[in-house]
Amino acid sequence: MMVVWIHVGAEKQKVCIIGSGMGGSSTAKFLREMDETLELHVFEMRGEIGGRTKTVYFDGLPRAINAGASIMHKGNKYLVQFAKELDLELIPVRKIEL
Length: 98
Prior knowledge:
The chain has about 100 residues and is of the alpha+beta class.
């Protein structure tokens, strides 16, 4: 869940975003790109950003696993662009037969 509160009429525009999941984080990013003068605040109840996304590390595996709320589909142009900007490697998921 993400809530945005904008205080208009102040000397400096203040924006408060509640939640740092994909919605809150991307809102903060796009607002910053639109107006660098905004006083932007993001509040998160957990100790890390990302909302329902979670990176899990397993002993013996060379890479981390994304155990988040959804997958990063290559058709999602915003997530693909974020991955490029953050220099993240997108690894195709392979089906594992049990």
